[in-house]
């Protein structure tokens, strides 16, 4: 037998599969020790086969078996993900393994189990020992870690020392435990609406369920109920959230409800801790994996439910190879395990909602907040009028009035600034005009180095404007106000107010976020000023006012999804207001008060928004009615990059010529941002109507890679800059 082995996968230059002669005990999924380049390294057996393409005298034997690190599901997924994204298996495998493991830290897939020795005599004064012994007799055996946790480490070891118990290293049985009921967190009694949602999901014949529930409708409780039921059935659960370190409430709830059965894989953990959590899952000691994007690869077996919360969130898309969509991987896993995938959101992405409309997914709705608490009122402040009145501050008269009222009552407020990237659109502050591409109907982006406006979808460049073509006004703005400036202006207006700022500058490291959120939650500040980060899932009961300072900024972002993103952001941010007894308010400042997206958002009309948006996508042939594909070539030497891109273009042109009717757009150009971190960027941009072309596009494009020039393919990229 020959074993296909991926070796020493921390080094990218050995990103391929090597063959070795299998020895006894080697199965697919084993971690093994193999000779490699004069050293002995770890490798992973991907497959066993008869025969080999190598001459037999060149095949070396595997030296030994370390453990069984990979599940059968992992092996299957590595293969299909590699095929789907045309990515080497070695690279894909990395997704499934904690970084520590790749450095060769040897850990066996065993644990210590304690057995009682019958008839031992424990002195009565050794209370914990006696209790532990009684427990062992009753239970038959217990993992050493569990016994030590319950009765103390010294009691456990004393029992062994006096011969009352013996410890045995055992290969871990992966039969999941069923001890549901541990943990102090009491579940809420489900409301009838939540109960209906749980039943609908469990009773559905479809794999994917879209749980569309307004903010504060109690989606979390639905997730936790589904997870608890999976555990009761002896299965495991996977719970994905966009950014776990930003949701301390969620963490607390999970810990309270599920205790140590939940392994939490978040970026705040040290490498060693991550490694330990990974093994707890792999051995079945923990059976709920909670985490962000990368947790979708958690080493669970027999998964009973997968939950993907805030499914619309952009962080679920990987920006490095393989450029996967978390939901796509989750679907593969749900299919493999025969379980449900629940996608939850108050503002589902247009693509996802369409799949629910066409019957590919089931749609489950929670249309009301818990206890019928009203959603906060959203009032629009017309900033054009403020400018005309001579108010040049970032705050409208209405917002100031509401702020004063809020502070006078001793409540808290959140002021939200819309900043994503620094690409800026041009907006006339007097009439609200926004510069758009004549062909593509998306906003143009200002590029200061060339002093021009560019369309990111067709590459067209336009001269800079000096006056508004609509009203002749000269109050054109490119950059909005920064958080720092807002805090300064705010402090001047309200010298007594305690203000916290949360943005990329104030939150070095993940702990930074937590510290600010904790301070705000403890009411150590009255106003929190922040960017996107403040929008996510927080539950601050004293917040009764939310101000959205520049609702337009994402509306005019040069992206076909800007309408969708704006709707999502407004809904999410507004959802932070009035979550407890007192009703909440929202002031939304805009230069474009008639805009349909804002109208739908103000009325919490997701259905109306969707209907309008999907019609627009259809008319303009944007996703989900077409796929935008970008092939990017990057490297340090511009001439080489340009040459590789030419080759890419020629290779793809053949595909294009043969199937022109399936292409809405096909062109090569410099990327709008030509250089990032010293790397030149050239691209071929396509919009296609048939996804069936993708494998060919990947194959042709990736074949053009060279040593110095990286080529990669992006599908519907999050940004085209
Ligand atoms: P969502 O995730 O839909 O925005 P949450 O899950 O955060 O909503 O729930 C909103 C609030 O309602 C939370 O404070 C939560 O504790 C509370 N809640 C949820 N379910 C129930 C219930 N069945 N009974 C009482 N309170 C509930
Ligand atoms: Zn264009």
What do these coordinates show?
With 721 residues, the chain is of the alpha/beta class. The protein has a seven-stranded parallel β-sheet, sandwiched between helices. It has a six-stranded mixed β-sheet with strand order 5-2-1-4-3-6, with no helix packed on it. α10 links the parallel β12 and β13 (288-291). The longest helix has 21 residues, at 638-658. The radius of gyration is 29 Å and the shape is globular. Residues 173-183 have low confidence and may be disordered. Bound molecules: adenosine-5'-diphosphate and zinc ion. Adenosine-5'-diphosphate (ADP) is lined by residues 188-191, 194, 213, 215-221, 370, 539.
Q: Describe the biggest sheet?
A: 7 strands, parallel
Strand content: 15-25%
What value does the average pLDDT take?
86
Q: Ends: how far apart? A: 50 Å
Helix content: 25-40%
Computed structural class: alpha/beta
Spatial arrangement of strands, main beta sheet = 12-13-11-14-15-10-16
Radius of gyration: 29 Å
Ligands (ions, cofactors included)? adenosine-5'-diphosphate, zinc ion
Please state the overall shape, judged from the principal axes of the Cα atoms. globular
Please, how many helices?
22
Indicate the low-confidence ranges by residue numbers.
173-183
Number of strands: 31
């Amino acid at each position: 037998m020959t074993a296909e082995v991926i070796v020493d996968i921390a080094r990218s230059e050995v990103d391929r599969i090597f063959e070795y002669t299998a020895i006894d005990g080697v199965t697919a999924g084993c971690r093994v020790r193999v000779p490699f380049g004069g050293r002995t390294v770890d490798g992973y057996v991907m497959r066993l086969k008869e025969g080999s393409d190598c001459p037999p005298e060149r095949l070396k034997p595997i030296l030994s078996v370390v453990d069984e690190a990979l599940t059968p599901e992992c092996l299957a997924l590595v293969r299909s993900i590699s095929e789907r994204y045309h990515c080497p298996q070695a690279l894909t495998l990395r997704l499934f393994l904690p970084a520590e493991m790749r450095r060769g830290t040897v850990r066996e897939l065993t644990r210590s189990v304690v057995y009682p020795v019958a008839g031992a005599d424990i002195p009565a004064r050794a209370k914990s020992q006696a209790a532990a012994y009684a427990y062992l007799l009753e239970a038959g055996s217990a993992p050493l870690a569990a016994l030590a946790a319950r009765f103390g480490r010294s009691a456990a070891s004393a029992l062994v020392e006096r011969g009352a118990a013996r410890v045995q290293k055992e290969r871990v049985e992966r039969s999941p435990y069923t001890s549901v009921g541990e943990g102090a967190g009491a579940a809420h009694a489900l409301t009838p609406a939540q109960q209906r949602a749980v039943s609908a999901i469990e009773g559905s014949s479809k794999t994917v369920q879209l749980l569309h529930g307004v903010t504060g409708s109690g989606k979390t409780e639905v997730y936790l109920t589904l997870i608890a039921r999976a555990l009761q059935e002896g299965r495991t659960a996977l719970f994905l959230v966009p950014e776990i370190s930003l949701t301390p409430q969620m963490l607390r709830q999970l810990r309270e409800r599920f205790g140590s059965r939940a392994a939490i894989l978040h970026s705040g953990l040290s490498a060693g801790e991550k490694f330990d959590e990974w093994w707890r899952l792999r051995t079945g000691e923990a059976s709920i994996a909670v985490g962000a994007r990368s947790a979708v690869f958690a080493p669970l077996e027999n998964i009973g439910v997968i939950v993907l919360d805030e499914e619309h969130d952009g962080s679920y898309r990987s920006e490095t190879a393989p450029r996967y969509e978390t939901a796509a991987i989750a679907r593969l896993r749900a299919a493999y395990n025969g379980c449900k995938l629940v996608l939850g959101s108050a503002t589902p992405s247009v693509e996802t909602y369409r799949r629910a409309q066409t019957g590919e997914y089931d749609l489950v709705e929670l249309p009301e907040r818990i206890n019928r608490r009203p959603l906060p009122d959203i009032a629009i402040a017309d900033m054009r009028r403020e400018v005309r009145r001579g108010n040049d501050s970032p705050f409208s008269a209405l917002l100031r009035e509401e702020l004063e009222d809020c502070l006078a009552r001793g409540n808290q407020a959140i002021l939200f600034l819309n900043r994503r990237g620094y690409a800026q659109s041009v907006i006339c502050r007097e009439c609200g005009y926004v510069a758009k591409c004549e062909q593509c109907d998306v906003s143009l982006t200002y590029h200061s180095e060339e002093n021009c406006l560019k369309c990111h979808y067709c590459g067209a460049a336009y001269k800079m404007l000096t006056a508004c073509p609509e009203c002749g006004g000269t109050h054109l703005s490119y950059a909005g106000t920064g958080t720092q400036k807002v805090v300064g202006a705010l402090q001047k207006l309200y010298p007594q107010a305690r203000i916290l700022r949360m943005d990329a500058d104030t939150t070095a490291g993940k702990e930074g976020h937590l510290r600010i959120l904790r301070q705000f939650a403890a009411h150590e500040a009255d106003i929190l000023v922040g960017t996107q980060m403040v929008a996510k899932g927080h539950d601050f009961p004293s917040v009764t006012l939310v101000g959205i300072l520049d609702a337009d900024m994402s509306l005019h972002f040069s992206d076909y999804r800007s309408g969708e993103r704006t709707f999502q952001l407004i809904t999410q941010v507004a959802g932070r207001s009035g979550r407890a007894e007192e009703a909440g308010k929202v002031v939304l400042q805009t230069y474009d008060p008639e805009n349909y997206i804002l109208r739908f958002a103000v009325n919490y009309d997701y259905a109306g928004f969707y209907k309008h948006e999907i019609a627009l996508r259809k008319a303009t042939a944007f996703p989900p009615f077409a796929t935008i594909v970008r092939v990017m070539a990057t490297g340090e030497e511009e001439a080489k990059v340009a040459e590789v891109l030419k080759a890419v273009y020629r290779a793809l042109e053949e595909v294009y010529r043969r199937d022109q009717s399936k292409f809405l757009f096909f062109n090569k150009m410099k990327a709008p941002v030509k250089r990032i971190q010293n790397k030149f960027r050239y691209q071929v941009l396509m919009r296609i109507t048939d996804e069936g072309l993708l494998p060919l596009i990947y194959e042709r494009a990736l074949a053009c890679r060279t040593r110095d020039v990286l080529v990669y393919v992006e599908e519907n990229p999050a940004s085209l800059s």
